[in-house]
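Lesson 9: reading folded outputs for more than one chain in a single document. The general rule is that every protein is listed as its sequence immediately followed by its structure tokens, and records are never interleaved. Here is the first one.
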Amino acid sequence: MKDVSTVLKDQVFGQFSDDPFLFLFTLIDPTNAFPPIRLVNNIENIVSRGEIYLAFPMLVSLPIEDGETVPSLKIVISNVTMQFMAMFRTLTNPLQGTIEAVLASRPGLVEIAIPDLELKKIEYNLESITVILALRDMLNLGLPSHNFTPTFYPGLFK
């Protein structure tokens, strides 16, 4: 992880903070079946690096890094519009997500980023959508990628 700015450290470790810490949430369909969804947990929209993030009440639970499980991230989006509900009901492809943290005074400078998240689960009701995202499961990848069979390694079976 990259080093965070001195401004962020001052806000986090100070007794009082006058600069809110915002999470930028981006959800993308790799097949481009629908445009990217960009949300921010703020009371007004913000622009970061030329992209508009829509203000939406949401809670972000960052992953726990224990070295034994695949880190997963939980986002609860409140006041869900029927537009999101209809889109999530029609999903057929896995979505990709990114969560980034910025200070409200400097939305163009990403302090912390967790890219390349995969959508694992969506739960929804009349009041909210809960999205579970996880990093790619590197702990359970098979190595080597092939089995030792005569097809791939004929020299082993003479």
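And here is the second record, again sequence then tokens.
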Amino acid sequence: MFTGLIEHTGIITAKSKRNSSVKVCVKSRALNKCKVGQSVAVNGVCLTVTQVSKDIIRFDVINETLRATTIGLWAAGQKVNLETAAKFGQTMDGHLVQGHVDAPGQVVQIRKSSGEWQVTVRVPSSIKMFAIKKGSIAIDGVSLTIQKVTGSLITVALIPHTRKVTSFSELAVGDKVNVEVDQIGKMVYHWVQEYRPKRRKR
């Protein structure tokens, strides 16, 4: 479990395919004390540390994760957002983020306005019903508040600090991003769909 508050950024140093999985190596001095088996959110994807060597952390990624995220598009030299798992008792400044990406979205507009950057992302129809104005959403692992929803387009606003300390400083129109909607909304939707009383036919 994560909060969506990015602690550090790292750089992908290598990505290679081995058998049915992909190996991703990320350089980050800040996380050189990570242990094998620890969970780290990398651009919003919960991955398990499989090897630590000085300031290089390696992750193994299976096909299902590749299918549901943007990892297949990652390349050496790319900046990524990093967050270690939340600890019980710490301040919850973001929102509950699982690191289980719902689907990739695509950036369709970036606009600077009055000291903020407004970013609009197109999301698949399968998750757009979970996006509500002023609701929470995680984009590439960053906890953000939804500013506007227009059909399948979701707009969020980035303050200069968020843009500075995350990979969003390199974000461009056309980029694919990992999107995780608020899990509470998903749970409520599931409950309503599965367990609501059935209306009797008259």
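What the second record shows: The chain has two domains: 8-84, 103-190.
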